[in-house]
């Protein structure tokens, strides 16, 4: 079986191959390294096998009798060396090299905040890992606190995950570490939303957590960091959620330690196999995931594979309302085309501020209202709106669009329908 390793799986530049076609490699062996003095992260083989192709964008390896319990250990001796050598990046989807993020030293009281929100609906693997091994989460947090000189650690987790919270509290003996329960809305796991809730500080869209004297790090990143430091294990495996239109219909499966480079088709087979009908395959979560294919490989930042429900037919003309917290314009255009609808207008949430090449919300999850935007789409000739709004923004859309006789579709509809979850529309607190 072939495994595929793209040379760019992270923020920064692509890696450069250090193996050649025909070469035998071992699990955990370096196969591509970042260029010197460039932002990037090395890549390791997750299997034992033979290199069958080395291209400009990827390396292909044919598996040969992998023992997934073994791997080539890292060579570093200090935590910082091991983290940099491991190839670890932000595993919540951003993919920023972890060694660079942790290249800080707090002078005063600093905070390390574990983002364990499991922000996207359906995705369940972070919580499953915490429930299984809470002590390893805390150990990883302690390592980062020591590296950065932070005086306090916080595990930020949605309050609905009561079992995970209790298990963390049960094994926590460090008075400097606390658990902070988050509200169960999207995008409560957005970095600045986490800081706003835990520290009471709302950063500007272009500001980084260091402006709040904090580092925010994803839960699985913390687990893999501990592996690198204590077990000298490179980043070669990935936890993920596989869900949707599978043979066991409307099902959600958590797969732990899936070898990076595994094809989507194999991951789905391990979760029981693909159902007869589906609309699209999504890599990632319902809000921010991208369309993928069966031959695509799992990469460092893969958090989920969702076989979405078949697309509902849309109206002849549709308007797009783009939120910085959800699917971007291109993704909504793709979905509109699959619905058979012509896009006649595009509007952006009034809080979606342009920051360099992307848009970021000025106050994630706190919406000021979308009436003007919806009315503009109506004026453009839209017969319905397709939105990518967060929970609170969806509330405001639903307060006006139906009154304008505009049906509302959401970028998450296919994913949510595939597991029989309630679709994102009006949100009411219990």
From TrEMBL:
Record-given protein name: Proline reductase-associated electron transfer protein PrdC
SUPFAM superfamilies in the record: Nqo1 FMN-binding domain-like, Nqo1 middle domain-like
Alphabetically ordered keywords of this record: 4Fe-4S, Electron transport, Iron, Iron-sulfur, Metal-binding, Repeat, Transport
Annotated RnfC Barrel sandwich hybrid domain residues: 2-60
Domain NADH-ubiquinone oxidoreductase 51kDa subunit FMN-binding: 83-224
Highest taxon listed in the record's lineage: Bacteria
Pfam families: Complex1_51K, RnfC_N
Encoding gene (name): prdC
InterPro entries per the UniProt record, alphabetical: Ion_transpt_RnfC/RsxC (IPR010208), Nuo51_FMN-bd (IPR011538), Nuo51_FMN-bd_sf (IPR037225), PR_assoc_PrdC (IPR031001), RnfC_N (IPR026902)
